[in-house]
## 1
Amino acid sequence: MRHLPTRTTRRRMVTALTVLLFAVPGAAPTAVADEARPSSPALADGLALTPPMGFNNWNSTHCRAEFDESMVKGIADLFVDKGLKAAGYQYVNLDDCWALPSRDADGKLVPDPARFPNGIKAVADYVHSKGLKLGIYTSAGTKTCNPAGFPGALGHEYSDAQQFADWGVDYLKYDNCNNQGVDAKLRYTTMRDALKATGRPIVYSICEWGENKPWEWAADVGHLWRTTGDISDTWGSMLSILKQNLPLAPHAGPGHWNDPDMLEVGNGGMTDTEYRSHFSMWSVMAAPLLIGSDLRTASDETFEIIGNKEVIAVDQDPLGTQGTVLSSEGGRWVVAKEMKDGSRAVALFNETSSPQGITTTAGAVGLPDADAYTLRDLWKHESYNTAGTISATVPAHGTVLVRVSTDRRWHQHPPAVELGLVGSRLAETGTPAKLTTTVTDLGRTPAKHVSVRLSGPEGWAVKATSPTSTATLSTGRSLHTKWSVTAPQGTPPGSYDLTLKASYRSPAGARVENTLPFTVSVVVPPPSGTSGLGDLPWLSAANGYGPVERNTSNGEDAAGDGHPITVGGVVYAKGLGVHAESAVEYYTGAACETVTADVGVDDEKGANGTVAFEIWADGAKVASTGVLTNAMPAQPLTADVTGAQVVRLVVTDGGDGIDSDHADWADARLSC
């Protein structure tokens, strides 16, 4: 949770200078001594046999006054009224700031009377009356993560656990701040035993941010464990966490789940396409689905995403496997999840900023040989037949999520058809851009009466220069259509939406339509000579926290909140301030030769931050650094980009998550 003023302050608070151990006479040092403890049993309590689903207020309210009894009850009401309870969501969880900063004279926790005037039990009773369950929060330290200093449970585990049980709590999120250096396994095991001693079934969520690799030791300690630092409502943050969680698939299963943090769907920092990817990938990873947006103001699109029962069924499949990565070359990901009924959920995920064709096969995802398969698109809610190829042109930052099965009724469905796109999506005004579209039959049955059309913004000239229809496409055959697309003179630079639509009929005569949305970028030629990249327009920019900043460092939040770019004590007047994971693209139009910069971690993060820099030219990496830390001075980086249409500046997280990764492209220049 981001309870503190910056995302690195929390880590400074985690471990105090002294290590405090609380001793029990005649026993080894342990984290608490408020009462005798039973032995440490392995978890076999029947809880969280599928990933927990519910709501947590932190991502939408933080510690603001709006987090109160009225809000919590309102969320419970919406779970019922909006069909979320029926879709499987059951936990309504309170995060930090529910208590007063001090315990009472008996050492008990005291709910904040301004927020919860009737106490926590009254809230739990209300939530339970709706057929739902209540969750609560504390930290495995002396205080929670918020700077106000709310009491943590270290040294009070058994007392606090009993209070939670007496109130009717069903779920505990146990954070990691102010832990005084006490061994993590010891702290989290003590609370496990304290919860068990209450006799109340309470799902136990370990939130130690993956620092001590809980996936290696916590399967008999908690029901789920955070694998990463905190998520934020940005594409870069979500992507970084996804990449850290995916390799941990072998450690997940019924009653013990990898937790890549809460959902950001609906909070406004990503597009709906990106939110569908977020929800799809969390589901294929069998991750807990904890809604993090304020449902009282959520859009219809947000409810459509988080309420998609077919996607939820992937997450909640009782077999309990986490999807595994089959391929990821070039940011084109294939992740497959075995389902209890023998089918496979397959995510075709595109992390790049342009449409990508992503392909696998039924055999590659683990299905047996068959004449054909049924392929169910879980976002379109439509079924097709396929001869074995699983393929789609996936929009930028998008995900196609399908469920593929051996099914004797495959012939009842129309053939799957893939729409494709070849050619540059860059256009200078008044100059035709040349595109080729493809319509390919992936099915075992033929697609008949196939036609395709391309539409663009009003005033654009979109013209087919080759046939747009064919009578029949058999398995594996394609209709190729060439197009000329011209943006009128005076069109401002930027991205513009175009739509490719194909229609066809199945052998039974059913009419089917497929759509591929994409963008064309109107660009201006780069200026001659040497220019500062901080002063040039970019094609696209993605960042881990906050926007990419021109000629200042990245301040993580609003535009313009950075500082002078400073690396190793050297201040630079020009450049780009970013935060990993980051990618910034420039149009160079085959007219430029070199990119140069001094690169490093900005001094504003103290000793924190590890990043790596890359320069790409038309999809090829042409320069890179190793992992750089804050202790290193700026490193010179030069790349030959001769002939490239597009140059992309990339910053990765150095392999350890994106905490404090303020990266500078200092004095970045483009020579043309």
Note: The CA atoms of residues 315 and 620 lie 36 Å apart.
## 2
Amino acid sequence: MLGSTHGTLTTTSRPARVVACGRRPGPMVHGTASPAGDDLDVSGRPLRSDVPDLDRFFRPETVAVIGASETEGRPNTRITQQLIAWAKRVGARVHPVHPTRATVFGLPCHASARDVPGRIDVAVVLVGDPVPVVEELAHCDVAFAVVFASGFAETGSEGAAAQARLAAALQGTGTRLLGPNTNLNAFEPVRDDLNGPAIALITQSGHQGRPVFSLQELGIRLSHWAPTGNEADLECADFISYFATRPEVGAIATYVEGLKDGRAFLLAADRAARHHVPVVAVKVGRTEVGARTAATHTGKLTGADDVVDAAMRQFGVIRVNGLDELQDTSALLARARPPRAEGIAVYSISGGTGAHFADLATAAGLELPVLPAAKQAELHQWIPDYLSTANPIDNGGHPVGDWRGRKIIDAVLADPSVGILVCPITGPFPPLSDKLAQDLVDAAEKTDKLVCVVWGSPVGTEDAYRSTLLGSSRVATFRTFANCVTAIRAYLGHHRFTAGYRSPFDEAPRALSPSARKAQALLRPGEQLSEHAAKQLLRAYGIRVPREHLVTSAAAAVRAAAQIGYPVVMKASGPHLAHKSELGLVKIGLTSASQVRDAYRELTDIARYEGLPLDGILVCQRVGRGVEMAVGITHDPLFGPTVTVGLGGVLVEVLDDTSVRVPPFGEDHARAMLGELRGRALLDGVRGAPPADVDALVETVLRVQRMALELGDDLVEVDLNPLVVLERGQGAVALDALAFCR
């Protein structure tokens, strides 16, 4: 973790403004203006995230505590005391609300929220049944309502209905709701004696934020904590959008069990990427057990994990596995300056330590450049000749105890190929480790490059660790090799991502293309299209299919084959045929009229026997050999239409070698999808096969994406399999296609 002087934004008291009780004027939806037409895509979805005015939540002028208590032993009493203390820190006036009390802790008490004079910035609801209270708040001038009570969507359908009532009560009023099933985390004291960029924390489970909150005790500044609970209204995405615009926020750390709205989350991540603010997330739901548990905790839909994972990568969200990784990675990203170079130098007093760290770093894809011969010779002025200075750099131990130690560190940092210096110290060995720690801190103060230290001692009470390393604002200190590697990879990846970031939403189509209008006429709501109809859909989007004719007689089949040219392929075409080969409804390599006539009779006989309705028989061009791929559209419950590419034919089912993206995305992501496939080498040509036409494949993926953007709400699934990618320069051809309409 990075240590020392990082603190929170201090607030001062401000005079309260008096506003008459009543609804806010103006057409508002959930407290934000509706997006303008230019900020909507072809399906009417927003292309920008709204940023709620959360300043009034975190820095209110007036706070109403509904259900306030001073009775000893009652939970509401402790909560009331904490809210009064928080309000004092942020300069807000507290109005206790209770129907039978005249005062609470010496403050005048009001019978209802309607009796509170003027505007209420934050109304905290402490009653067992909050629904009637929230419905009452809808008629007052309240900016934010906070509901702690549980028993809502996390409990099942009845609770979900009650939660819907909460949200509906405030719809269109301008009042925003935090919760239900939230907690006091937003009102906990944060240190205001720390300086520098801070971590803003968002959690759907309050307890899971404790490790990041505790970083303050190690000198890491925390600016905000947003516990979103069940997210009946305000959600994780709202807070990401807000924190991304705050000048004091250096990184956003979030614990996510599920997403309320996948699109809103991506728009918020897009806003953070535009502002170069890293978002680090622990996302639950990698397994069925985790997904089921999340649903019973906050009532969240966790989503298909491969889609969530791909969507996060696509928009620069850094997904980590554990809370320890969340705190270490967030701390590094919040504090560290942009890298001067991506090369990592590993400096240690032991060859074994250096080799161990180098192994982990290299396996993670990090670069350990070999230092130039001149630099190695320079280092050998202070390091014995028999020790390696190539990188990792092994000093043998003794040089760290005298003037040579600092010379070595400065020389390594001076190399232009080195952007990060990592010094793993596996255990304390005073006085050498004390001197080494101090040299590293002193060198870090003089350089604009990142200095990382791994302090491996499990004790953590050593002065070199507690005072020297954690006392430095310029050294990133970790406790494990793995967390150091994870954080550095995220740090380099984030700066690489944001340096060239172009928002895909900027290039999203705003109007339907002529292709979409032509394709819409082909759709059949609630039905599966026949192969012939599905291929017409592809043709409308300029996706290449074989030359083919749909025929309804043997004679017409013969004429079609002559037109196309032998050999031909014949297939049954009907609205309920998903796996034609297994039913014997595909005939290939037909070379004569007699074979075509026989094939027509056999295909129609099988279909009649199986009770399968046909719209005809397809007589198709036989396409040459190539790499069989699959490209498709599926509808994800969180993110809507998604595009998948993978190895085709039976391999897509056997190997499950696929990559997925959420539209909109550009050519760079289409090419990156191919790079993520284990079978990517097939496209480059193996065992003497020529390279495939990757450009044509990428173009097909982008055309399928356009279809997903324009018709995604009307399509459940589209499947191009196999899509044969021919030799470079010859294109790609969809031999078969399925389409299911909504």
Note: The first helix runs from residue 55 to 58.
